[in-house]
Amino acid sequence: IPVDRIRNFSIIAHVDHGKSTLADRLLEFTGAIRENSGQNQILDKLQVERERGITVKAQSVSLLYQYKGDNYLLNLIDTPGHVDFSSEVSRSLSACQGVVLLVDANDGVQAQTVANFYLAFGKDLTIVPVINKIDLKNADPDRVTRQLKSLFDIEPYDVLRISAKLGIGVKAVIEAIIEQIPPPAVNRQSPFRALLFDSWFDKYRGALSLIFIQDGNIKVGDEIQSCHTKKTYNVKSLALLRPQEDPITQLVAGQIGLVGCNMRSSKEAHIGDTIYNPSCPVEPLQGFEPSRPMVFAGVYPMDQSQHVNLRSAIEKLALNDSAVTVEVDSSPALGQGWRLGFLGLLHLEVFSQRLQQEYGAEPILTAPSVTYKLRMKPNKHNVKTGREIFVNNPALFPDFMQIEEAFEPMVVGTIITPDKYLGGIISLCMERRGVQRSATNIDNERVMLQYDLPLCEIIVDFHDSLKTISSGYASFDYEDNGYQSSSLVKLGILLNGVVVEELSNIVHITKAQTIGRRMVLKLKDIIPRQMVQIAVQAVCNGKILARENIRAYRKDVTAKLYGGDVTRRMKLLAQQAAGKKKMRMVANISLPRETFIDVLKK
Ligand code: GDP
Ligand code: MG
Fold first, then answer.
1. CB 354: neighbour CB atoms within 10 A?
2. CDD domains per the record (predicted)?
3. Would you say the CB of residue 132 lies under 6 angstroms from ligand 1?
4. 311 CB less than 6 Å from ligand 1?
């Protein structure tokens, strides 16, 4: 197929606005799948995706369509559908020249619509605006059209109106894609050069990479080299995804296809890498920042006998998800485990759900944390001032005496809400230390708010609170915005004077008192009474913020004895003392595991 009859595009939309449904309709319309085959949402392959209704891993499909007597090749590149995955959306868009911007006719423009629009706009992509669900009783496409005009300056006559569910207007979408989105600017005569923009792991064939061929061609049997690792490979297989793998012997510039070359690990398939033919070296294509984990959590087996199983489950899943980082970790109370890095809280939840569903592993997850940046004071081992370290595990947070300045990761959050919930949402953002950037009316009853927010304040139930406050009507999206200096402190928990690192927390100084008090009361509730009194304390920078005592059982083991036998009495008292010692040890060092799980569960 000549280059001018190739179109590479994505559908971008807020979650639930109908991206998967439209993708299914496009597949049916072009004959890639049979109509009413009952296989809904073909591109959502993972079980969690079907359950949660969100796309996690980007998939892609090549479609053929006849238009005005010519065959066109339409490559639909699916993008993950949630805020946690915006860096992945961005990389999927690198292989596109245009997008279909899909907006629900009832919900209107939402936070992810805005974020996705700016991603596509920033990459200079052609935007085909489409209002979906016009069949809904409450559909108000005129109003959505006005929103598109006021927010993005999209002209009303450019906006298509469809029902993906009923298949109304789908043909017009395909034709707009062909008419409006330019073909890729590629060169088939130049030496081979391709962008690696996605990859996943296959048990039998190793890492498979999805590539966009910028120049030249690639054939089965060719030698290829990675710009990033400089490793060379032999091309074992090439395929189009339609959506099942359709083997092919050659791919040419402008096409998107799957390459198998016996890569042992998905770490070798570096997303954003340029691959080329080692006999004709080329300039690397403009890559993109690989996605960076933002949220970290410890993962431990329920008991150490499950350690081996859990390890192999984590390894397998991480192979398939290059955005997850894995490091070995251990804790006195929870044993051997790992510290994993995720793109966001949803990514973490999806990963742990997949561990359970696909591998039957039941791990314990510790409270999530972000990565703090610390500038250390000079000391005798470290003469240089201004040394910077990064810490994502509260247990490893250094003593405050050693820290010169602390920084925390920030985001810019976008919230779209009906204006009647404005008051509650502004309070929530303030409580989470947010600073308002702007408030804009997008029509006569909806407002778009932008806030600077600390990442750590939104990773735990910010989204849920927002939904509760707004009866589900507010939407939220965020984007990474670097580090900001902040008064952070380590909130430690002491049991009878001994620090329990698994329960440490990094908090803003203004919140230390409240959180410390809350944790102490909670632990008082959870920890069972024992033979000795247990003092539960929250400490911060060497000061005690809160304290509760868990009273001991009073048991006089000699009460039942009638004076008499002194040696027996002594023996019993000695036993009781030994028991106390053991208990103290339990209280100080290894509390019952359930205690940690209960506290961490929140
Ligand atoms: P995604 O999250 O953007 O992939 O959205 P889905 O395609 O999963 O659709 C979300 C929900 O909206 C599903 O229940 C669909 O059946 C429904 N839906 C999608 N398109 C339409 C439409 O045109 N009309 C109506 N009434 N419902 C639709
Ligand atoms: Mg979907």
1. 20
2. EF4_II, EF4_III, LepA, lepA_C
3. yes
4. no
Residue 161 Cβ inside 6 Å of ligand 1? The answer reads no
| Ligand 1 pocket check for 50: Cβ under 6 Å | no
How far is it, in rounded angstroms, from Cα 428 to Cα 420? 14
Q: Which residue has its alpha carbon closest to ligand 1 atom 19?
A: 18
Distance 59 CA to ligand 2 centre (A): 11
Alpha carbon of 40 to ligand 1 centroid (Å): 11
What is the mean pLDDT of the segment spanning 419-426? 96
Amino acid at 495: L
Q: Given the structure tokens 């690397």, which residue do they identify?
A: 284
Q: Which ligand 1 atom sits nearest the alpha carbon of residue 55?
A: 4
The band of 595, judged by pLDDT with boundaries at 50, 70 and 90, is: low
> Please, are residues 500 and 516 in contact by the beta-carbon 8 Å criterion?
no
Q: Give the torsion through C-alpha atoms of 354, 355, 357, 362, to 10 deg.
A: -140
The band of 17, judged by pLDDT with boundaries at 50, 70 and 90, is very high
Instruction: Write phi, then psi, for 172 (nearest 5 degrees).
Output: -60, -35
Binding residues: 13-20, 78-82, 132-135
pTM of structure = 0.80
Highest mean pLDDT among 292-301, 428-437, 515-524, 587-596: 428-437
Q: Rounded distance, CA 411 to CA 292, Å? A: 14
Percent of the chain at pLDDT exceeding 70? 83
Does 347 sit in the ligand 1 pocket, CB within 6 Å?
no
What gap in Å lies between CA 180 and CA 9, rounded to an integer?
11
Q: Where are the beta strands (DSSP E) in 433-555?
A: 435-443, 446-454, 475-485, 488-495, 498-499, 505-508, 534-540, 543-550
Nearest to 478 by CA among 419, 429, 406, 423: 429
